[in-house]
Write a structure and sequence with these properties.
three-stranded antiparallel β-sheet, globular, 19% strand, eight-stranded parallel barrel, alpha/beta, single chain
Amino acid sequence: MFSINMRKGLLEASCKFPWDLSLVVFMANPRVASGDPASVKETFESLVEDGVFRMFEVNLMDENSWKLASSIIGTSVEVAVGLQPLVLSQGVNLCSLKEEERRRSVELITKAMYASFKRGARKVAVCSGQDPGAENREAAKDALVKSLRELAAEASKLGITLILETFDREWDRKQLIGPLRDAVEVAHEVKESHENFGLLWDLSHAPMLNEKPSDLKIAREHLAHIHIGCAKRLPDARLVDTHPGFYRPGSVNGVEEVADLLRVLLEIGYSGYLGFEVKPEEGQVWREPLEAAKGVLLTAFARCVR
């Protein structure tokens, strides 16, 4: 990992970056999620050779793609599985007010957790499901807590940590969870019976939730993972959750926001992973936003240290 060298007068010091880095691979190169063998091979070979990342966050890949990826990854890098796509695009809803739908969703995530365990993953991430509106929100939170307790119980049998990611509620994904305060309430309830549970906060989603890194202080005991990236503001002023690279047209977040995040994480004693979640836009090669993100993080860390 990188370090910052500083000099003032005759004094010189070096400060090592204090967190391990991860990468959401299926976002960094979307062709990986499609199962294209050439893309899977090229992407993982490139990332392993890079040597920067201590964890790869992967989707629930098909068996052939996973065999190819795992042969390249080996055992030197930790693997976590992001199950959010099952919720965001495949109809899983852990906060459904329809009990049959809620139970089916728990069964599907449980099956995916067992598949992830067999592939060596010890962390899996999910999101809540659609916000039903203010009038049904409390009932949906109760349903979500019930689902997460059931999932955490299964995860504990496997030695897996279950992680809930917060998404926007009003702009694009429109998930129940949602604002950090609601996420903390849910985490408190789940962790009354299951300690293998935590929260994932994404800097990309902060502008869409009207949140700032300083808000993380209320969640310090529950934070299991952090993502770094950007929301995108469209010409009509709408915010969308497309994770563009830093300083692309419409990108919301930059060096100062990342530096603020690092300062807060140092203050609260966060010791987990920092994960890049950036996605190439039309006309970009897949490594372009990733390399930009590295530069932003290095600059932000230098400002934070100084």
